[in-house]
Amino acid sequence: MHNIVYVCDLLIRLHTDADIIIKNLLILTSYQAQYLIYKTALIELQNLFEAQYDKVLLHKVSSFQDEHHSVMIVDLVIIKFIDFLRDYDRLNLALSRARYGRYVIFNMSSIRDRSGYHDIKYLKDMLDHFTNTHTLYSLQTQFASVYITDERAFALVIDPTTDYPPEPGEIDKNSHDLHS
């Protein structure tokens, strides 16, 4: 559930701080349960703020085929099962469809502690690559903003073309597509 709080905060920051219009934001989830929780969370955001957060695009990876989107938030926080992460094609699809900005949320301890994690070579290689290229960031301290607070640690994978910290304003502001 902490990942939902983090992503909702990120949505608010992308919209308010970076002035990215809501229709250019997309959340991709791995599982139906995550999808339903996000759907409820977006309605709650709509009720709390004047912006139309219920208009954020929300898809499961399996229903998002061969489409590209301006700014994607990919939630790969896996609590019980890593079956989705075993499917290279689906994982590649989830990580390769962002045009201007990509935020990928992992729960590293959950993934690395799973039996079979080391058997998924491409997943291990991908996470090692993100770590070695300094594009994997662990939010170890209390995560707080003026909108939402979350005390759980996450790992945030940033598109290698984006500098850390992953401020919403770091996305290519020159892109007319993001603001219209």
UniProtKB/TrEMBL annotation:
Domain DNA2/NAM7 helicase-like C-terminal residue range list: 5-107
InterPro entries: DNA2/NAM7-like_C, P-loop_NTPase
A Pfam family it matches: AAA_12
Protein name (Swiss-Prot/TrEMBL): DNA2/NAM7 helicase-like C-terminal domain-containing protein
Species: Emergomyces africanus
